[in-house]
Amino acid sequence: MGYMNHELFIRKHKAMFRGPFLEIGSKDYGSTINLRAIFPEQTYVGIDMADGKGVDQVLDLTRPFEEIDAT
Asked: What is the pTM assigned to this prediction?
């Protein structure tokens, strides 16, 4: 999820971006912009440490790589 300035920049320069997209820290707390909606035709995966709206996979990137690779 992004903030308003991020959304404005991405919408203005949308043609520069090509998927697939990986959003780290994607949980929607109710006050963020849904960047995924800007690219509905692209593969877009959201990861976060906690489950919630906007999260496709719960993943703690602070864990050892061996544990991350096992998920």
From this structure: 0.78
Task: Tell me the pLDDT tens digit for each residue of 25-71.
Answer: 999 888 778 888 999 999 999 999 999 999 999 999 999 989 888 87
pLDDT in tens, 29-39: 887 788 889 99
| Phi and psi at residue 2, to the nearest 5° | -120, 175
Rg, Å, the chain Cα set? 13
Vertex 23 angle, CA 58 and 21, to 5°: 120
Q: DSSP letters of the chain?
A: -B-HHHHHHHHHTGGG--S-EEEES----SSSB-GGGG-TTS-EEEEESS--TT-SEE--TTS-HHHHHT-
